[in-house]
Amino acid sequence: MDDVPEVRRLVRTALRFRDGFEVVGEAGDGADAVRLATELRPDILVLDLGLPDIAGRDVLTQVRENSPTTSIVVFSGAADPADREWIAERVEGYVLKDDALDYLVDLLTSVRDRGARAVRDLPQDLLSVREARRFLRQVLERWDLSRVEDAAQLVVSELVTNAITHGESPCQLRLSRGAATLRVEVVDEGSGTPDPQPENPAGEHGRGMHIVGVLSLAWGTEALREGGKVVWAELPLTA
Prior knowledge:
There is one protein chain. By secondary structure, the protein is an alpha/beta fold. The protein has two domains: 109 residues, Rossmann fold (3-Layer(aba) Sandwich); 120 residues, 2-Layer Sandwich (Heat Shock Protein 90), CATH 3.30.565.10. 40% of the residues lie in helices and 21% in strands. The chain has eight helices and eight strands, in the order ααβαβαβαβααββαββ. A five-stranded antiparallel beta sheet has the order 4-5-6-8-7, covered by helices on one side. It has a three-stranded parallel beta sheet with strand order 1-2-3, with helices on one face. Helix 2 runs parallel beside helix 3 and helix 7 packs antiparallel against helix 8. The radius of gyration is 19 Å and the shape is globular.
């Protein structure tokens, strides 16, 4: 998706010489980019953030919302450092237009081969738990993984609820599909860690992370260098 026809032609031609790619659509502005992504649900989208009608952040956000299983690689000019950090958290790759075109194609090949990924930003609101569950269902249907939905819904609900109530911040839900696992990650701005509480059959709270532990092959917490943390769990794709 680029407003310069010559750039689109160069990318299209380069992909013809690399096996495993089929160009299913092109757009020259942000509105068409969002529309085509919604209609075609491509595996990978190459996106210029300097489209003439819609700001780059807004195009990226709308594509993510309407085609959550599409991997996005940004191919654009240099962005403001603050924007670069925000963008990097929401895309699979970022290539400057000053770089060699072969580097872009190599990155697209790597993204294609390493599995699917989907991301959704969620506000600090308990209604976000419902939105997270809806998003998960949509993604699993797209990936033909509805067989793991029951377990995944419990894990996602627990991790998103923890982020909102204990992390006291907005959060980001990240889903990625590997060869044998579904990885769920929830990123928030809080400093605490979700530790399993002592089991109390009469209690109404504190059992969530025990459930996550039972349903997952593994789970853990990683502190982020810029602050906050990511809590992750990996679920098996087979019984």
